[in-house]
Amino acid sequence: MLSVSGLTKTFDQQPVFSGFTLTVTRNRFAVLIGPSGCGKSTFFDVLTGVTPADEGLISWQGSDVDHLGDLAAYMHQKDLLLPWFSLLENSLLPARTGGEDLKQARQRAIQLFSRLGLDGYEKHLPHQVSGGMRQRCALVRTLMFNRDLVLLDEPLSALDAITRKSLQSLLLLLQSEFNRTLLMITHDVDEALLLADDLYLLSVKPMRVVEKIELYDDKPRRFDNPELLAIKKTIMQKLEGDIDHVS
Amino acid sequence: MSRSNLLAFGILVLVLGLWEATCRIFAIPIFILPPPLIIAQTAVLKAPLILPHALTTGMEIVCGIGLALAVAIPLAMGMFAWPWLEKALSPFLVVSQAIPVFALAPLLVVWLGYGMAGKILMAAIIIFFPVTVSLLEGFKSCDREFRVLFRLMGAGFWQTMRLLYWPWALPHFFAGLRVGVTVATIGAVIGEWVGAQKGLGYLMIQANARLKVDLVFAAILWLSLMGLLLWFGVGWLEKKSIHWKENQQIL
To answer: CA-to-CA distance for B110 and B105, rounded, in angstroms?
Structure first.
């Protein structure tokens, strides 16, 4: 279980969040959704240890940690593949930096390549394949971290609608097949609704959880489900209300 | 031949043609301004005389490049690794460029003599600055998200340098090196003007004093060709090193 309590971060005497508290249960898909500029990215920076928190506690599996820098894998909206390495070499980076046995890691990576529909593309350079395939490769790399917790920073927002669809189901695989615990930030309501178990609505600065919505279990979800549409309507109203309130 | 190549060739022919015609029509003496055909003839016929000098100058430039790189690369890495080092050193770097290097040339002769050492140092001083600055800028231009990724992968600074920063900065590095090698010829030649026993600069001074202006121009021609060779050499090296940019479509 990931638990964050009383997290406070101030920039130029402006609190980005103060006393921010959040719990993510193991093997759940938690999605933080909020308007852009609400402090989601700063929150991730604090989690990953890029910038320290002013106050607050982060704990993973019951033990307190300074940050999740060496406990979590990370996936960004940019695929962050290095253009000078082949797709396979890119996916092996976490194994290389972690000093793992490269032979074993290579085999595992090749298996993941075929599981995620990338077989035959191991030797290609990133610029030789499509954006969707690059993001698949980033997903393999995320899995190669061998870390239970995965932080997703709007991982699909740079993709076109069709590619996104297929990658959404791959993200669900992270949870169902690879037993990862996922924490995603996004401003895409539809994506949040399709993927999340627990949806956290965020307010603008100072950022706090306005509401936690637990969604029903059966995934993949479809938007022709009236229940989902009803939830979407509530969320949209809440988010819009929040923005109106500010302006 | 493409349109741009055709134009470039056309301009060259036009300029040389005008030059040749002017010399002939006004019967300008060869010791004032020799026509291009005579220069070309001298450059070829006097090759046995020019070649040893060209080799010396070439050696000075290549050694200068080597020396400059040996200092610039570790320095840029150090300044990137430790920002306090950059803060401390950057005023000196700027001052080192504010001093006109050519003014140092006579001093270098006093200190290092008539041999190659002074000329190598001159070339190195000139190349070193653009390479250091552009390499450092290259390191700094690395996207934040990539650094976060490497941080989360638990990579140390030097591992990140090898896998991320260095290849990332290579295009910047080569841009700096290109600027450096083209001006390096100037450094070496000025060093030779001031005091040397060999080299194209020395040859030019000697020929000029004897009013062998065609030989002066021939030496300049050789020097220009060497500069071009260096330029294309660096370009070739760049293409080899940045192989992933090859065939990459530019939209």
So the answer is: 9
